[in-house]
Amino acid sequence: MTNPHDPPRRTLAGRCGCGAVHYTVPDAFAYAANCHCANCRRATGSAFKPFGGILRGQFQVTQGEDQLMRYGEPDGHDARCKVCGSLLYSIVREGEYVHVALGSLTDAPTVRPTAHIFTGSKAPWFTICDDLPQHVGHEGAG
Length: 142
Known about the structure:
mainly beta, seven-stranded mixed beta sheet, globular
């Protein structure tokens, strides 16, 4: 039950690079991190994936559901636009959570990554230059 004295939650919009797929998510992420695991590096083509985690039922594709390409299982997969290839989100934690690729948001979330995770497998050519905690595994990311 919501408290009438609580401020309303903002709804954030996100989309792929070409605009074929759009989604919304409340600005109520449970956690956020920068993941350095090999799978996230391969999925993004970058040193790490900044993501925000939210319950799956709070994430909604609003346009282009038929333009999604899913790689993996129903309760654990990456979702991309099949037109432009943008990584939009991942279904994780036995299908209970969505890890939204923060770079795909068109609105700025209030959450910020609080840690670097899976640094035990980070790219050897990348140096972490901030003061966020670093975890060899998934500790600290929900």
